[in-house]
Amino acid sequence: MWCHLNKPFFMQQFVGIFSLLTSQTAALDCETMKKTNEFPSPKVYSETDVIMKGQNVSLFCSNQNKSLQITYVMFRGMKHLGTWDGKGEPMIFNLRISEAGDLGPYKCKTQVSNCSRYSQEFSFTFANPVTTPVLNISAFQTETARYITLRCISYNGSLPINYTFFEKDVAISPAISKNVREPAEFNLTERITGEREEYRCKAKNRLPNHAKYSQPFTMPSTGGDSCPFCLQLLLPGLLLLLIVIILMLAFWILPKYKANDKSVPGLEPRQCVSTAQDGTGHSKEIHYATPVFQEVAQGDHEAHNDCKTGYVYSELVL
Length: 318
Fold this sequence. Notes:
The chain is of the alpha+beta class. 23% of the residues lie in helices and 38% in strands. Strands 12, 13, 14, 16, 17 and 18 form a 6-stranded antiparallel sheet that branches. β12 and β13 (170-171) form a beta hairpin. Residues 1-7, 13-28 and 301-305 have low confidence and may be disordered. Residues 1-27 form the signal peptide. Keywords: Glycoprotein, Membrane, Signal, Transmembrane, Transmembrane helix.
């Protein structure tokens, strides 16, 4: 009778002890899996962490153990984004990054039974693509060699920007990184070959697949006795010399022109004195007066007009 009444009590005790042993075994197994790296922490990653605003991206969450049936949970901050079950292959989470709040941080959780692990945080960064760079070239030439300076700059795009210079399709410089908006420079020396060299440059920042190339610049040939590149270099100097000559002539002619304007008399009389000899051999001075003509009003000469029209009279003053 006593045994019959206490049978449920023994059954409850047995189930409790079994559950305790099972949970201890599971906890022991989880700790063992962690220590033996059988269930390592997951890894969350993307093809790139630098993106443009509004870009679609894929986040991957993977675990090195390919034999376990794993539950994957993705978080952005404290927000739960989704849960997926998988085995062997990494889980892919497709996202669209439209604003700063979408940049992260992201964290992935993997769970097997009651054992769970968390990944390191992952965040994206916004960047603007570079624009087509501008290539400028300056050169100094001797009889045997040409000394060239190449300058390349992209006026837009997130910094830093890496610049590379090319001769035709062959890179002739290492990547030159610029953390400020200024041209990258590269100097080279080439022997005079008479061939036409073509140069260009490439600008690239951390955005993948957004590199830009400048327009090609072709250096003129210097073969033979002609020197078109020398003429190109001398042309600004010749133009400056021509401007200086024109200014010198202008400053030389203008004062003379003003002096001539001031020397024109206002019809002032002028006398000339000359000498002559008479029949007795004595010399006499002869004074000549320069006549001055003055216009006289018509009323003063009506008596002389004799009713004839079409005439203009002047007075002769000696």
